[in-house]
Amino acid sequence: MKIGLGKKMSTALIAIFAPFMANAQSERQAPPLAIDLEKAIEIALSENPTVKVADMEVQKKKYAKKSAQSALYPQIDLEGTYTRAIKKQVMYMDGAFDMGQSMKPLLDGIEDVLMEKTSSPNYNEGDLMNAIAANTPPPSGDGSITIGRDNTWQGGFNVQWALITPTLWKSIQLTSLDIELAVENARASKINMINSVRKSYYGVLLAKDSYKVLQQSYDNALLNYKSIKSKYEQGIVSEFDMIRADVNVKNIKPNLIQTQNAYNLSTLNLKALMGIDVDQEITVEGSLLDYEDALYKDILSADTTLQNNSDLRQFDIQTHQLQKSLELYKAQYLPTLAVMGNYTFMSMNNNFKFGDYKWNPYSNISVALSIPIFDGLKKHNDIKQTKVSLEQMKWQREDIVRNLQLAINSNVNNMTNYVEQVFSTKDVIVQARKGYEISQKLYDTGVGTLIELNDAQLGLTQASLAFNQAIYNYLASKADLDKTLGITPEIITENNK
Hey, which bits of 266-397 come out as E strands? Predict the structure, then answer.
C-alpha cells in the first residue's frame, strides 16, 4: 500500500510540474535571435537606456514650458486665518470722552423721541445712554482704551493677475528654445547610438569573417600535416617536414582561439548597445563582402554639407538662447502692470459659539504699476556681458565649422584610400590563392618545398585578412562621416512619429 501511494504521489507531482518543466526547456531551446544591421539599430533605438533618457528629457522640457506659461493666467488662492488676542491693542483718544459729555443733551433728545415712538412698554428713560456706556470700554488713567476682541476669524479669496510682464514673455520664449535644444539633443543621442551600433556590428562581421579565414588556413594546414605525416610513414618525406607541418598547425591554433574570443566580445558589446540581455543568443547575419559593391557609390553620393550636423545645430540653438537672454535683460527696463483683488469674510468674537457669529464681508481691487528707475546699473552690465558672450560664440562657431570640415575631408580621404585597398587586396587574394595551389602541386610532385607551401598559405591568409580589414575600415569611416554630417536613417523618423 505504501509503495502504491508513493507511485501515486510521484505521478501527481509529475503532472503538476510537467508544464513548468516543458516551458523551461522550451525557453532553453529557443532559437537565437537573427540580427542584421537594420534590426540592430531598430532594437537599440527602442531599448537602449541612453536614448530613452534623451526622449524623456524632451518631455520634461515640455512640462517646464507649460509651468512657465501658467504665470500668464490669474493666480487664485483660498486663504483663511485665525488670530487669538493675547494682549489687546491700546488706543488713545484724547478728548473723546469729554466730547461724549458735551453731546449728552443731543443724545437725551434722541432718547425722548424714541420714548415717544417706541411701542415697547419696557423701555425706560436712560436706556440708550446705558447701552452706549455698557459697550464702551472705560478709559484708563492715561486716557487710553483697549479695542478688539479675543478671536478674529478671516477667510476668502485672493486673486493676482500679471497683465503686462515683458520679462515673463521672454522667459516663455526661452523655454521654447529649451524644448528645441532637448529635441536636438535627443536626435544627437540617436545619431551617436546608430554610429556605435554600426561600428559594433561591423566589428562582429570582421571577427566572424576573420575567423572563417583563419579556420580555412587551419584546415589547410591540418590537411597538409596529415598528408605529410602519411608520406613520412611511407618514407617519402623527411621527419623535418612533418615537424614543420605540425608546428604550422599549432601556430595557427592560438590565433583562431583569439579571433573566436574577439567575436564573442564584439557580440557582447553589440548586445549592450542594443539594450538586450547578454544571455540572449543572437546570430549576426551577413558578411563584410556584402558591402563591397556599394563602396564607390557611397563616396559619390555623400553630401558633405553641415546643415544637418547636430553639434552645429545645438550651438546655433544655444546662440539663439543667448540672444533671447539679451532681449530679456532689455525687457527689464519696461514697466509691469498687475491687478490684485480679494474678497474676505471676517468675524470677531469673544467666545467659540460659531452659530452666533456674524460674518462681515469686505473686498477690494487694486492695480499695481511698476516702472524700473535705477538698480545700480545691474541691467546695463548684464546686457554688456551678454553681448560679449555673443561675440565669443561667433568666433567659436567659426572654429567648430573649420574642425568639422577637417573631419569630413579626413573621412572622405580615408574612405577613398580604403576603397583602393579593398580592390588591390582583392587582386592579391586571387594571386595568392593561385600561388598556394601551384606550390601545393609542386610540393606533392616533389619539386617544391614545405617552406614555399607554408609561405604561400601565409600570404593567402594575410591577403584575406587585409581585404576584410580594408572593408571594415571603410565602413567605420563611412559611419563616422554620417555621424559628422548628421545623417539620420529613415528608422529614426519612423520612431519619432
Answer: 282-284, 336-349, 360-370
Are 418 and 424 spatial neighbours (Cβ–Cβ below 8 Å)?
no
Q: Which amino acid is it at 233?
A: E
Say what the alpha-carbon torsion angle 236, 241, 247, 253 is, to the nearest 10 degrees: -60
Domains of the chain, start order: 30-72+165-326+377-496 (1.20.1600.10), 76-88+149-164+338-371 (2.20.25), 89-147 (no CATH)
Pick from 141-145, 430-434, 449-453 the range whose average pLDDT is largest: 430-434
Contacts 24+ apart (CB under 8 A), 435-440: 435/459, 435/460, 436/220, 436/460, 440/224
Are the C-beta atoms of 123 and 112 separated by less than 8 Å?
A: no
**The model's pTM:** 0.75
Q: How far apart are the C-alpha atoms of 381 and 372, rounded to whole Å?
A: 15
pLDDT in tens, 87-111: 888 877 665 545 455 555 555 555 5
Region 309-329: what's the mean pLDDT? 94
Q: What three-state secondary structure class fits 267?
A: helix
Query: Is residue 73 scored above 70 in pLDDT?
Result: yes
